[in-house]
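Sequence in, structure out.
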Amino acid sequence: MNSNKTILVTGAAGFIGYHLCESLLKVGHKVIGLDNINDYYDVNLKYARLQQLGVGRENAKVFNQLCNSTSHGSQMQFVRMHLENRESLPKLFKLFKFDTVCNMAAQPGVHYSLDYPEAYIDSNITGFLNVLECCRYHSVKRLVYASSSSIYGNSDVVPFEESTNVDKPISLYAATKRSNELMAYTYSHLFSMETISLRFFTVYGPWGRPDMAMFLFTDAIINNRPIKVFNNGDLSRDFTYIDDIVNGVLNALLDNSKDTSLYKVYNIGNSVPVQLMDFIRAIENNLGTLAKKVMLPMQPGDVNQTWADISRLQKDYNYKSNTSVNKGVEAFIDWYKSYHKSNNN
């Protein structure tokens, strides 16, 4: 991997973005982190992730002000900014002349999009366009960006392949992610930009999001609350551990693909789908506690199954996903207990 790149990571206070910043710093790159630190979920968790990067809350909470990390110095800088800010974002690109950009920022969540659609257009469409424009005008060589397995909708042809028709999204969130890929294709075609879409499949692990199943189930079981099991448990997910995901993102950011085309789309998952009830059992076994289960029908916008065909990413970037669900669940629960212990003292 080439060293000494200056890389922008948007969504740096988010789950994947935080871990990516950590890994990039470890291999010697200069990282500029950006996040708007919105309140979609507990902002204390976002600030705690930034603290791990040496970015204190008092500095991080000020909009449009660059601050250095206390542990990494100017190798890690952070700015709180809205991705759709058409004045501040171009100034940031002009200042740093990024070698590569990794856009992990987005308004996530399928169910939230049913009630707050505007948030998805602002961040995922307008914000992404702003990133594309900044890359175009500031000669960024490579843009890697987060897409999602949700764009496959309720496809019953498994495993999901990148060549599958994905023009029937069943949530606005999925529609915005598909839109990102179409926008990126246009910019690759018109302006010779290299754009790499990574379709993430159910990422979990330490520092994970509180709105995701891993966190929700663990939190409920530990606190003796019932868990909600949708579609009566008849769901399967391609649960993928955070370390495996980050290794794949690093390869896409820093290495050259065997595919020399400018526009690329990859599934990034575990390729081992797990039944939801088996996932719950893995959590129960680790905690030594049985969950109280409330069986519910399918939620609007949700999908029955996800299963990634990762052969393209394996071929082009030597991607590997090595972490079993049992090992990943154990690592998450260890982190969860430690995080809540330190925050309750």
